[in-house]
Amino acid sequence: MTGPRTLFRHIFKDRAVDIDQMWICDQANKSFPHLFYSLGTWSYANALECDNTDGSATRTHCNIPDEKTTSFSGKYSTPYWNTKSPEIISPGPVPANASDSPPWNETPCIGLSFSYPNWDVDKLTYSGEHVEFSLRNHANNQSSRCSFERRDSSSEHWVTCDNSTQALFNEQTQQLHVNQTWQCSIKNYAEPITFNAFGNATLKLNCQQAGSCSAAHTVIKGSLTEPIEFTPNVAPKGVNYPGCLQNSESPSWEVTYLLWRETFRNNRNVGTVDAVFKNNANGVTISCSGQGEELNIIGSEDHERWWGCDLIEREAFPKYQIASKIKLNPVTRQFAISQPWWCNADRDASPAKFIGEGRIDVPFSCAWTNSSSTSPGSDTTCPISNSTGWNCTQTCTIGSTLLMPGFITNKTNLSSTEFVEPAPSGYSCTIGSVLSPKWRIPWSTLTPFWGSPLFPNATETLVSFNLQNMVLGGFAAAAHSDVGMTPLLPGSDPDRWFDCVDNVGKSVPTVLECQWQFDLKTGYFAIRQSWYCDDKDPEHP
User: The organism sits in which domain of life (predicted)?
Assistant: First the structure.
């Protein structure tokens, strides 16, 4: 037997001592030793002898003579740990005192820097060998003045405008290149966040006389290199879809999935509908569902009820949420869609908001099913009048995609600048991922099943917890048993990574890979997770 591991706790008010002890017996099988864990309490109140022979009025000396010590029995038990809600913070720029919530699309600096690292170029002139222009950063609204000799800015050499800005002007291609660094401060962050971006644009030059030219107002769109490399392409969902304005005048939807189910039992007649459809004007696909008596042929007289679709919980542009509705009449079997959407300017047409509807008579394919446990038989026809004593369900589906024609109920023309760098608001997956990746494990429990006299080799450890990525929302519930997590055994492998796909719970659709690692002996817990964000460039997540 190896030496036991012992923990004790002195309970002064009860004059008692708690003893927790674990030991291993390996005489029968040294490769797979037996583990035991016992908990016992000994009360020493009757064995304690005290005196104050030293004359002290404030101190009493107490001891327990050897002859008064007694043996006591313990009970075998399974150790159980119920932790609080620990937080796991990824290495990086996240400060220890950062807010629990990830940084949002704060303006004027953070949100705009991740969305529009662009510049306005104004008052550009060059005469002879001299080039001069003003530069305004859209992200922080700061302006710079750039002035240099043209011979210092050839097609291959950058010049320094100030301590944060560089420029290059190519006379042959008439392109102006800009490279700039700036910083944004965030509440509770000790250090500001540094951004760097570069971009270029071809100037429209106006040369009044030889050697003297100017350029009209020009916008340069930038690409970030810090704190992450990517080119933002930010806009509300669907507004820049090709042909959005033209196709919206005669809208249509593609219904790729439609499931209608109605159930009858004891006059509790209900129905459900699930649908997936795409708006052909803006290219956006929506999932919808509804449940109620109105979707049953005899459940309710209100068969024209609209069912609202769930909105995206974390939307970068809440103002432009596509709040769709669906309707299914179980009597006429007509399916309808009502939906708002927006389109950006196209050529000479201004941006616009549309509200449209579509309707179609659905050629459902249906089948009846009965409850074989209570009905006359699973293959028995299920007339509605005889369905009061057992479950009777009709399930209807579509065999192929339906093209639903529609019409516009309202159109509102918008300002020409409606979608010119609209200020992002609310949640940003990209910003949270770059600046504040954090995980929380609420209601976590760690339960190792160690041995007992009846099951001395039940050494697998069960780990259960809810993993919540603070950036993505949602959670994944984990419940995994493995001997590799049990310390002190030959099979212990604290370096092993476990896949989250082995677990059960609510999945987060943007997660690509998830693994976790746990060492019960030291309490070390680690997460390795990859995911994608599409709020700053939906076409290139």
Answer: Eukaryota
Q: What is the CATH number of the domain that holds 394?
A: 2.40.350.20
Q: Which of 438, 513, 442, 428 is nearest to 470 (CA)?
A: 438
For residue 437, tell me if it sits in a domain. yes
Q: How many domains does the chain have?
A: 4
Task: Kindly tell me the burial class for residue 415, based on how many C-beta atoms sit within 10 Å of its own C-beta (0-12, 13-18, 19 or more).
Answer: exposed
256 and 373 together in one domain: yes
Checking if the pLDDT of 503 tops 50, the result is: no
Q: Which residue bears the tokens 């000479």?
A: 348
Domain carrying residue 388: 244-413
Residues 6 or more apart whose Cβ sits within 8 Å of residue 214: 123, 124, 125, 205, 206, 208
Say whether pLDDT at 1 is over 80.
no
Strand ranges for 280-424 from DSSP E: 285-292, 307-308, 325-329, 334-343, 352-361, 365-370, 392-397, 402-413
* pLDDT greater than 70 at residue 95: no
Structure-token match 């608001």, residue found:
425
Model confidence pLDDT, tens digit, residues 376-430: 444 455 545 544 555 788 899 999 999 999 999 999 999 999 999 888 877 788 8
- Is pTM beyond 0.85 here? no
Phi and psi at 68, nearest 5°, equal -95, -5
Of the candidates 94, 91, 107, 89, the one whose C-alpha atom is nearest the C-alpha of residue 190 is: 94
Q: Looking at residues 492-519, what average pLDDT do you find?
A: 73
317: number of CA atoms within 13 Å, CB side? 21
Q: How is the beta sheet containing 193-202 ordered, strand by strand?
A: 159-162, 165-170, 175-184, 193-202, 222-226
Q: What share of the chain is helix, strand, coil (3-state, %, to 5)?
A: 10, 45, 50
Task: Tell me how many degrees the CA angle 160-162-167 measures, rounded to the nearest 5.
Answer: 40
- Tell me: pLDDT of 520 over 70: yes
Distance of CA 123 to the CA centre of its chain: 44
Identify which of 343, 153, 125 has the alpha carbon closest to the alpha carbon of residue 247. Answer: 343
Whether the per-residue pLDDT at 78 is higher than 60: the answer is no
